[in-house]
Amino acid sequence: MWRVSDALNRRGFLGLAGASALAGLTGCGADGEAAAQPKNGGRLRAVYAGGGAKEVLDPHVQSLFVDIARHKATYEKLVELGPDLKPVGRLAEKWEHDGQATTWRFSLRDATFHDGGKLTSEDVLYSLARIADPAVPERVAQSSLATLDLRRSRSVDARTVELTLTAPNAEFPALLAGIGTQIVRDGFKDPAKPVGTGPFRFVSFEAGRSMIANRYDDYWDEPARIEELHILSADTEARANAVQGGQAEYANDMTATFARTASAGRTVRIVAAKASTMQAFVMKVDQPPFDNPDVRMAFKLLADRQRLVDVVLAGRGEVGNDLFGKGYQYYPADLARRERNVSEAKNLLRKAGLVNKEIEFLTADASAGSVESATLFAEQVAEAGVKLKVVPGSAQTYAKDLLTKGVIGNHRSGAMPIPQYVTDRLLSKSPFNVTHWRRPAFDVGFAAAQRLTDEGARSAKYGELQGTLRDEGGILAWGLPDYLVAVSATVQGVQAVPPNTLDSGRFDKVWLA
Q: Of 508, 73, 488, nearest to 269 (Cα)?
């Protein structure tokens, strides 16, 4: 018996999401002034943190914000995430499951690729097979979609696709909204020639510099208002200079220091998605000294979280509680806030024999505030008689290096559903398991939770698992920064939503006043 998935596919929910988007376009700007009426035309230049030669056009091989922005402009997914991190339909108009969450049926939208071909179920099956290809492990969605059984999945008709899993998973639609799940044409071979269904048609690309795209007039969700889109790469300082100097109209992921400076002027507005990302210190739980749970707890008790938020984030954020996803679906909001306790931390460290010992902290200027937070935390840890030696690494390779190097370092995460975060980072075989948290009982419990089709029961089980993770795991989530975007005063329609969600970087919905 097929059952429409509750909360994922209610017509009322999707309608509210659309109404919210419209309100964001025609209501007030970030500075509180009434926005101008939408108009068409013009060029928008959006600048993101660059990755040099590591930038890619392949939509299934991506991790940088600049790559994600380029792919979002030209391709689309079956499902995206709303502002509350629940899935909403895009190329999939609706979906239902077999009552066990093992087989899912998706009805496709009437959409057209840039080459004129209609979207079909065969395009979906080809895209998922391409993502799953074990010969290309760089395709980032392989782990999150690992339970997809393509041999038993099928095309029901041109606009209906049936996807079968090897194990029940009530979160499957949300996994299709993850990074690197874009739908490409059946037979797509050359990433250098992007052909998607997105609002912009590819023109040119130069890694480390720019992508240029033009408005796609046959886009199913209304053509973009701007005529030409440039997505550019630059470091933090260059992004600030570009948006202030008029060389760009949109600058992504800005620092709190810049936001404070820009707010004093009239040429740049700051659009802030409140407490929508996470800053953390991560400890490898299988390596000394953090293989000792007393040491992990001592470090969590030593963190002066409010001080870190006030100094590193300039107050633009909230205190974290050693868990990812505050405010998102399934977050156990009833957990008490962890308070600083230096005396208890000293006792734990003395018992572990760490007093007067030195530990290296691997950091890098890979994201705003990383080095500063490591330095400040070293001062806080020193109060308990332990020296943290801050060791800088390569900003370009830091995320990959931290998987295998060092015993403690920085971690930052954008918005994603909590089950996806667990899948990618906290299971024994997760590809981005930076804390090396490998607990078979945790894996089994998480799999059992995903099989529960009742949302209340599933949420309770997730809450239990997160309680264990908070107390025993290697994540010291000290802060929840605001996600800051800077826009020229001429830009309208940019919404204050978490990154990685549907209306983040929606350049088809912005216009130039």
A: 488
| The two three-digit tokens of residue 247, written as one number | 């060389």
Which residues make Cβ contacts (< 8 Å) with residue 357, sequence separation at least 6? 289, 386, 387
Radius of gyration of the chain (CA): 23
pTM of the model: 0.84
Q: For 391-438, write each residue's pLDDT tens digit.
A: 999 988 898 999 999 999 999 998 899 999 999 899 999 989 999 999
Q: Position of tokens 């830091």?
A: 398
pLDDT in tens, 97-112: 999 999 999 999 999 9
DSSP 52: G
Cα 466 from Cα 472, distance rounded (Å): 10
Take residue 173 and report the two structure tokens written for it.
Answer: 């639609």
In whole angstroms, what is the distance from residue 416 CA to residue 374 CA? 25
CA–CA dist 318, 310 (Å, integer): 9
The 10 Å CB-count burial string (b at 16+, else e) for 323-343 is bbbbebbbbbeebeebebeee
CA atoms 149, 150, 152, 157: torsion sign? positive
Strand, coil or helix: 351: helix
